[in-house]
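Subject: Predicted fold for SusC/RagA family TonB-linked outer membrane protein, 959 residues

User T.R. writes:
Posting the sequence so we have a shared reference for the thread.
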Amino acid sequence: MNVKLKVLSAGVLFFLSQGMEAQTDTTRVRDIDEVVVVGYGTQRKSDVTSSLSSVKGEEIANLNTPTFEAQLAGRSSGVQVVNNSGEIGRAPVVRIRGINSISSGTSPLYVIDGVPMFAGDTGGGNTPANALADINPADIEDMTVLKDGAATAIYGSRAANGVILITTKKGRGGKFSVNYNNQFSIANVVKKFDLLQTPDFLTISNEKSGAANTVWAKGSEYNTDWQDAVLRTGTQMDHFLSMTGGLGKGNYYASLGYTTQEGVIMPNAMERTSLRLNADQKVTNWLKLSTSMAYSETGYEGLNNGYNSISGAMFSAVRQLPNTPIYDPSTPTGYNIFTEGTTSRVGQWENNIPITSNLTNIAYIVRNNKYSSDLTRFIGSAAADVTVTDWLDYRLQISKDRSVTTGFLYWNRVHGDGFSRGGYIDNNYLNLDRWNIQNIVNMRKSFNQHNLNLVLVNEYQKQRSNSFFADGQGLSADFFGSVNVISGSYTTQYSGGGASENGLISYAARFSYNFANKYFLQASIRRDGLSSLPEANKWGNFPGVSVGWTVSNENFLKGNDALSELKLRASYGKVGNTEIGNYPYLGLYSSYKYADYTGIGYSQAGNDQLQWETSTKQNIGADFGFLNNRITLNADYFVNVNDGLILAVPVSPSLGVPNNSINKNIGKMENRGFEFTANADIIRTENFRWSLGGNLTLIENEVQTLVDGNDIIQSQNGQTAYLIREGESLRSLYGFKYWGVNSANGNPVYYKADGSLVQGNIANSRYYGFDPANPGTLGAASSLSNDDRYILGNTLPTYFGSLSTNFKYKAFDFSVMARFSGGNKIFNVTRRELLNQDFYNNGTEILGRWQSAENPGDGWTPRLWGSRGNFINLEGVANSRFIEDGDFVKIDNMTLGYTMDPSIFEAVGLTKLRIYGVVQNAFMFTNYSGIDPEMESNGMDYNSVPRQRTFSIGLNATF
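User M.O. replies:
I've generated the structure tokens; pasting them so everyone works from the same file.
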């Protein structure tokens, strides 16, 4: 076997080195000396000793996503991006080397051109609006992800969750150039829920009601697909115009973008106009001024998609009765709506009873209720760079990030949520304002073979948020529900608001040294003062250190073409998490209302010993290059220990403390794993190029310390499903372990904690012992209690990554990227709800139900019994019957392009014209029974908007 491997390896090396045009030494040097962005500056790639990864703008230039962080999915090891909804405006979940907190924020710090950005949802409460979607992805030059302690320590208390640095495009000087990109896309849902059609619906519904000797369903004239009533084919358009050039000793870059996107669910949509101007001017030999300004206006149209809202779009659409129509010309609205007294619901048509819970006609709701948010965003900075000597520079940068959101909501008074209120309207306003001032001193010195660099930083940051709202109900006419709250148009009014602020003062230093480009040392220290913490604890120190050895620059390896690069790295750093709220240490009072009286009450117990959460990050890595870097491999092993995590410590109810708890720094959790990145230029000739790339992350999470070692049992959206326990992964699924169906009577059977079996007797909703050898007999009376719950699986993936390939043949180019993830479990709540026992529609899985001892069905789905779904399906708690593997492989992006011969357009000054087509979310391979295993929130899947598949065509023209 060893001989065969040696022969194979030799053959591969021969093919790569002889079968293609080899890279020159010049190419290799240029790659190694590439400059990468780091905190408060740049470094040569060859000098980097910490763990970071870069994504170039051209890699994501043609992807159709409204927000740039979604485009990171699969493009960097250690970075997991989960787009868990097809709803435009929802921010994806971004995790860098896992989750680093139990109760505080887990989002990375985003820095654009040196400006720390607002991130998260800024929609004002009416519709999701991702703050990062205000940045046009087409303006991005590159993104750098800082992952380990040494790379992130320069950002100190804000870096526990990693840092993503975004660099926008700058002017390149020289000839004036114009670039125009146009893209048109069509979006469809990848997959819909498999629901019963009318014939099966009638059978199942009346089998449910048969237990009570009644008939629920009647009428087969219609076979309505209610999902089609809320889902659609969306059209999307993107225009982007940029200009770059130079004037004298200055350079400039300007862009104008306009994007419209229709979501796959009505009326979800986005419209964005963006402007950007980046300019720099060398005033004298020692002074350069630069500015970066971006302005955007973004409008979102949203909807109610609550997981259990009666007017939630997907919640309602999958439950509507298929044998009833959407429209009824005999009603004033033209929709199938029944209204009488205080009741307004979808009409039951020929059925003998109305739909459960008086569900509304969801088609009317999505067309008549309004949810919108309009955002105005300004991100700007001005900087002065002073060259004091040839080895000393000073930079002053002043920046501002301001986001203003105006939200609007209208519930139609004729039907739905607004019916009982006589119509309901809401306006709200949210202003986020952040100032940031940075003083940066950069010293560089080289002598003999010693190279030194010292960066000193002083940073001030102040931010404030304020909001208010005005509500009204009892509208005098639907006319007043169109645009705004109008005085005198409603009978009952409400108003409110709030304000908060915090500040940060920081001092930092980074020292870098290398000898002969072989031996590297980098150390940094940051001292942060945060207003969100008590006086005694508001200051903290955050050190980082890394070392590196470029072995390939040693004489015994220098000039070795087979092993062209070998670098060993190690790092350590300590960082913090400031996403703990603005006043977490104070005892607070809040406004309270009792009847018609207003007052104040105790709302938060203070803790003057509270500190920020800390994360200690360790990393060992190696970088390899083979055949003049035709093949590269990066490998890292990391351990992140998150300590001092803020947890609620229970106190005696007799103390009168709000929520009977006080927050303290007690928790501890660890993430550890491996990262691998590989790239290879397989073929590189004059007419044909082929490259391969991929990355893999293996990661484990373990909770190590909780309050007195006690478990924490958590709920989400009405589902008690999580366990946080020492020695286990964070938020492991926790619930009852399902055995299957008693084939003799159709009862569900569960394991008790001691391994014995109990069956839930559907006839009387009680539990009895179960003997598989004697299924026809009910055993002794028993129970299924909270003590019988098991750990059913971890919700965090243990591996994820991607594979990509790129081909270029003459003027044609083709690329494909596949993403994969797995090792996690998902509680498929939607699947359970589609097996409901009420007068709703069901998923096709219910056809496998138990019908008799002679026809026991699939052995997994119990017998039907109307209105007893809570007992049959154990609603409200996790159940292994509905827990599935979250593993998947997706062909995520496929791009085909053709670049036309520029000589054809020489007369009109066109230097480049490329046409291309892109398919995103093209194919998926998974055993998960739901729509998409990525449609999960903390390990639960429930009624999300289906993901979309987009087909795009575009052109890129440069003059």
